[in-house]
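User: Before I run my own analysis I want an independent prediction to cross-check against. Here's the chain; please return only the structure tokens and, at the end, one sentence I can use as a sanity check.
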Amino acid sequence: MLLSFLLTFLGALLSLFAMRPIAQKIGLVDKPNYRKRHKGAIPLIGGISLFIGNCVFYFLEWDQMRLPALYLFSIFVLLAIGILDDRFDISPFIRAGIQAFLAILMIDMGNIYLDHLGQILGPFQLTLGSIGLMITVFATIAVINAFNMIDGIDGLLGGLSSVAFGAIGILLVMDNQMDLAYWSFALIIAILPYLMLNLGIPFGTRFKVFMGDAGSTLIGFTIIWILLLSTQGKGHPMNPITALWIIAIPVIDMIAIIYRRLRKGKSPFRPDRLHIHHLMVRAGLSSRQAFLLITFIAALCAGFGILGEVYYINEWIMFVGFILLFFIYVFSIARAWRITRWVRRIKRRHRRLAQQ
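Assistant: Structure tokens:
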């Protein structure tokens, strides 16, 4: 298994260097504009690297993994559509339609769907029945786009997805479901090379890469796939509400952003600079500081979800806690300008004290 992890890392890392000149030649690069403040044309190849690393681990651990062909087909389609979107900007409605189609295949051919939401409303299980199929399609599109939308500053997508896969892996180990647990940890290892080059560690910014829509959609689909396997059916290792805590930051940020856009009469798919990471940078944090802080908060949320499982905290209490977290987030964002002014005031005082 350790050898498989090592080869997964090397496969993902080498693919990044191999794909750089190809991406630059075919125009698969991200160029600066009014929303994107990076310098130069950055290759959008993180998703290709993750796909290759994922496949390397899968084929090395063929006997143990036995991932259905449906999953491999789905991530290949998402990768291909993501690459085309990164290069040519495909309509968000077309992308959502393809994501819905793959979700329907997951339900129909894979028999993977939301059957219940656990005991979030009391001592009885909230069974969804046939409406669960529609909710599964909606949830799949939502999670895919939550991870796509949160990818706004260096390291953030890699950090948040690693937190999610790590928390899932820990809960699966606790339930002795080692196959899925090893896969979750292997996905973190496949993300690491991208994260290193994206943050300039240790090669500097010369080899910088971005994940691109190809990678963020692949990550989101894989997370919802594993979470559905882990929260539904008999003997599931975690409750559905725990899954929400594991991906709390991307989901809450997406819901809040879409609500603000709709309230202003804008398309929910129209990009802007109102995400949590943008507001933190505007408050005076560096992008690296914002990345570390948001990832730390996400780890705390995921950790709380794990504690809920370990100590058998009532699911309705966990649900109320999640709703409370959402309203705290919305309240803070609605008063972002006050928080920004407060943070800047503290930083000015700190600088004055340092100069004295």
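Sanity check: Residues 2-355 form one domain.
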